[in-house]
Input
Amino acid sequence: MKQNQKKAWLFLAPILILVTVFSIWPIIRAFIMSFKGGPIINMQYNGLANYQYIFSDPDFWHAIANTAIYAFVTVPVALIISIALAWFVFSKIKHKTFFETMFFMPYVTSTIAIGIVFRYILNGKYGLLDYLLRAIHLPAPDWLDDPSMSIISLIMFGVWASLAFNIVILMGALRNIDPNYYVLADMYGASEMEKFWRITLPQLVPTITFLLTVNLIGAFKIYTQVYALFNGAAGQANSAMTAVFYIYNKFQVVNTPGVAMAATVVLFFIILLATFIQRKITKKVNS
Amino acid sequence: MKFKKALAAAAVATLAMISLSACSNKGGSSDSSSTKIPTKITKKTTITFWHGMHGSQESTLKQLTKDFEKENPNITVKLENQGSYQDLQSKLNSTLQSPKNLPTITQAYPGWLMDAADSKMLVNMTPYINNSKIGWGSAKKSDIRQELLDGAKINDTQYGIPFNKSIDMLTYNKTLLDKYGVKVPTNMAELKKASETIYKKSNGKVVGAGFDSLANYYVLGMKDKGINFSKKINFTGTDSKDVINYYAQGIKKGYFETAGSAGYLSGDFSNQKIAMFIGTSAGESYVKKGVANKFEYGVAPRPSKYTMQQGTDIYMFNQGSADQKAAAFMYIKYLLGKKQQLTWANATGYIPVLNSVANSKEYKDNTDSKVPGQLAKAMKHLYSIPVVKNGNAAYNGLYPIMQNIFAQAKKGKSWNSAIDQGKTKFNSNWNQ
Output
């Protein structure tokens, strides 16, 4: 039996207090508020009414579906592209640090600023992307103002925005692979593909698992990207309504904090479940 | 032993912190029922004012405030910018839980503060207005336009005083209209005709017209048919469908459009992609900047009987001391002075809330702005969103409903099922 040093508590105390006050207490409060109705200044217990409301609200399911589509498309696609790019930069390109910095730039730029640039690129009337598509005689959809395109545009934006962080982490992992593996592989005449599938990828699995978890949780909480891309709204006709947008709307615009908190609790459990399943799967893959 | 003491100390500190924060959540409800209104501020008094003004609006407000402080050396006004209206609304919403942290006065739409009014957290302005020393003596003597005062009422109580108000107006490309021989439309039928002509004569390159606010479009369209905005509206009824079809048909044929995710049509207007648009009078400075010397633009009354009055009022919270409340009211009254209103309206594009200023020669002769000359005509019939439960949510909910319908029209598809879906949403927005 290992014993924690009692002194450790003292050193941990400041952060434990902060975490309790700013992270754990809000979660507990959200749970309590989800069973209350009425305006924020005068909330009364109303049992499960908020949960009944959201489960019968088509807008809520629409928001959850959008969030799920976004998460389950963006995360794997972004991860595959990141691995390809990181591998490419790592093994084929000179001046690695320069490109690494380039790829990292979007991460340190504000999402709102990137959103404004994307709005120019995707604009249906003056946009660069549609201009290029028309130049090669392809159909040029209205990326921002056609409700049926909203989620696709959002996924494009999401994939692009998550590359930066992924690539930098993956580059770090690639550097940590023992170069002797490759030397040995070369001695036995392994092809590039064989080296990638047999050495690089297996060595990257722990990093990929980490990225998958972090990205998935982030994707479920998506809000800023929607706000930035659609100018403060959830897309035309609420076509890009996500779970957090729904929560914000119910809390601040409609003034039903209880409903917002019920949706928060549901989202909390969805993320918990998704992360749990994902961990189980990766564990199985690893073994 | 030492460690245990330290741990105990830490625990006590934590407990103290928690109980402190718990304390700040309680109390603050109106304890000082200040029935007597002080008419003079003899002690140093500080009031806070939360606002959402930016650019020239904010700098003008700062200047007016400085002038006020010079005239009333005992009063200090702390202006606190809370960001956009949406940010201001969220900040108010969350601060209502700990009333001690609320400002003395704030800009707000009445719909934001309904719960606060129900919980008696707002100050009824009527005694102040009627006070002959600190106020005007009566609402009539204040010279504030009646509809604007009515728009600042919650449950029939005068909680707000109108301040930065704007109305919907028509902005048009005069150069283009002259070129095609199109007269400035004065009603919706003429607007349709003018738009069709422009679209045809420009070979589909220039769209005729559009409305910035789809919610205003629907609400005013119904009001012109004599139907007030309420939960009783039958969204799939004949009148409602008439209003929707008018716009949707134009979009389908190409002579109307919506602002889309850009939010405003002033960008398309200054790039000469659209010939006319209906939007807020407070947006004129953006039009002016965008148009520059490319062409001549004009402003006219909204081509409908009613126009929407929008923009925030000033509300006062109950927790301030009697002196603070009196000082705050003196400040509001100062902002609504004739001279100040003229400065404010000229610098910001907001409309003067006083009848005498709106009709004054100095205001109408303003050559920098095209709004003043048209204002008297444009403000004949004002309408505002009724301050009732879920009214604000139902009004905001009109945007996605209309966008959904018009997206179908733009694709050339039938929008009937979208109207049916809209009805479900419209009704559920009213009943949440």
